[in-house]
Design brief:
There is one protein chain. The protein is an alpha/beta fold and about 80 residues long. It has one domain. The protein is built from 2 helices and 3 strands; from the N terminus they run βαββα. A 3-stranded parallel β-sheet has the order 1-2-3, with helices on both faces. The longest helix is centred in the C-terminal third of the chain and has 18 residues. The two termini are about 20 Å apart.
């Protein structure tokens, strides 16, 4: 389904490896702007083709930072759903 995520900004948790990384790649292939939530800087290389943000899903302040970053991307790309 080409273009299914066109004009969308998608924040994906755990996208530094495994299913999260595969999801990020697929969404990008389908036209989405991916914001990768990674746990550490060591995962940054795996998601270097996406915008990334450190996101520890156990920490509320980490969520706040990630969501604010995604909002900036959303504003920049002008897409919302």
């Amino acid at each position: 389904m080409r273009g299914r995520f066109e004009n969308k900004v998608v924040l994906i948790t755990g996208s530094g490896s495994g299913i999260g990384l595969a999801s990020a790649k697929r969404i990008a292939e389908e036209g989405g702007t991916v914001v990768s939530g990674i746990l550490s800087d060591e995962q940054a290389e795996a998601v270097s083709s996406f915008s990334s943000v450190i996101l520890d899903v156990r920490e509320e302040t980490s969520w706040d930072s990630a969501i604010n970053f995604a909002r900036i991307k959303l504003w920049w790309f002008g897409c919302a759903d």
